[in-house]
Structures are given as C-alpha cells and as structure tokens.
Amino acid sequence: MLALLARTVIDGPSLEVALAEALIALLLLTSGMLWQYGHRLQPHASASRGPDVDRRPLRRIRRRGPGLETDPEPTPSLREALAPAALRAALVPGRPVFGNPWDRETDMFACFAAVTVIVPFLLWCGGELTSAIFGFGSRWSLGVFMIAALVGASGFMTIVGRERTSVTVDVLAISAWILLGLIIAPVLGLAPPATAAIICYAVILVIMLGYVLRVGRFETAFIRTISWPITWSLFALCFAYLAYKLVLYQ
C-alpha cells in the first residue's frame, strides 16, 4: 500500500485513487490472512474435540436428557424453514450459546463481507429509502455513519457468532437485521441531531453487549474470544470511513 501511495504522489493521480488501490490491496491481504488463520485453527479445534465426535448431537443429549434420539437432524429446506409451525417455534425466545466463532471459516468470511461491503451500502440504501418516505435529508454525517456501521456490524457478528439451532432462527435473525439496517438505523441517524443519534446508537451497543453477557451462555469464555468483536468492530469503522469518503460521498 505504501508503494501504491508513493507511485501516486510521483505520477500525479488523485489521492482518492491511491486510497482506492490501497483498499483493494487491503481487502486481498486481509482475506488471505483470514483464510490462513481459519485453516490453522480448524485442525486444532478438531483435534481438541477428539476423533469422530459430533458436537451438535452431543449438545442435544445434554439439553434434552438421556434416552432420546441422538442422530443429527437433517438440514431442512428453505420451504420447510419458512413453514408456519417452524416460524412459531423460532419465535419462542431462548438463550443463545456462544462457542469459539474463529473455528468456522464460513462465519469469518460472512462477517468480512458484512462489515466491508453490506453494512455501509445497507445504511446508504436505507438513508435514501427513509428520506424518500419521511422527507428528511439522506446525507449522513461521517461520525454518525461510522457509529451506525459499528452497530450494524455488532448485530451481525452476534448473529453469526452464536451456535446454530435452526435454519428458521437464522432466517428470522438476518431478516430482522436487514430491516433494522434499512429503516430503524437510518431514521435514528438522519432524523435527530448528530449528538442525539450517536447517543441512541451507544445505548443500542450497550443493550447488545448486556444481552450477550447476561443472557448468552458461553462454551468458550468470552474473554478468550474477545478478539472476535474487537477485530470486526475495527474493520467496520475502517471500511465505513473508506466507503463514505471514496464511494458514497466523494
């Protein structure tokens, strides 16, 4: 990235072009690092569980007691997951279980895609939508936009970081997250003054943290996986800033 910036200064293109090139390089470098990190964690996690151990049926035995079916349930189709009975069952609140999210490569790349691309553009689309509906301005201030991106990333990393229980719960959680990003977050960020918006977002962050710590159960101690929220929070702030300056509001 330093070489790209130096070449830009010598050759004369704008600083925004240099930052865009640096962003692409950072994306490629980070994705490679996460891929290697996931591969390095996966054998260790598998070895620590022991051979031929399926964690999901074991958790079902501990929760439901002995003498019940121990075979893993097949993954339902999307049509089955959206059936009325499945939706009613998914709406029953339960305590989320948090393991070590770094053990799952798909979750790492889902968070990477969310905080780098999906969250900034979801907020921008939500701002345009709510501005057309309610009539207030659609242009975010930089600080409010970054804090809103942090809140969105926090919600997504909480959804992805918990242990899976059913496809229906995942569908409902992601749908609610998208709805909040399109409607609620832009209204909170664009309608009131910037200071009031930041306070509202800070309260939401505290509520989410309290939910995770007080309601959630941890298979791996929270302090041992603290790198998960710290990493994606920093990514969210960084890429929200870059998206704001280079793409959305040049």
| Average pLDDT reading | 75
The helicity comes to over 70%
How large, in whole angstroms, is the Cα Rg? 21 Å
In what range is the share of β-strand residues? under 5%
Number of helices: 10
Dominant shape: globular
Q: Compute the number of strand runs.
A: 2
| Largest sheet descriptor | 2 strands, parallel
The chain-level structural class is mainly alpha
| Number of individual domains | 2
**Termini, distance in Å?**
21 Å
Q: Which H/E pattern describes the elements?
A: HHHHHEHHHHEH
Low-confidence stretches: 1-13, 41-72
Strand order across the largest sheet: 1-2
Summarize the structure in short.
The protein has 250 residues and is mainly α. 74% of the residues lie in helices and 2% in strands. The chain has ten helices and two strands, in the order αααααβααααβα.
What does this structure look like?
By secondary structure, the protein is mostly helical. The protein folds into 2 domains: 1-49, no CATH class; 97-250, no CATH class. Helix content is 74%, strand content 2%. The chain is built from 10 helices and 2 strands; from the N terminus they run αααααβααααβα. The protein has helices at 2-11, 15-49, 55-64, 78-81, 84-90, 105-134, 142-161, 167-190, 194-215, 227-248; strands at 97-98, 217-218. Strands 1-2 form a two-stranded parallel ribbon. Helix 7 (142-161) packs parallel to helix 9. The model is unreliable at 1-13 and 41-72 (pLDDT under 50).
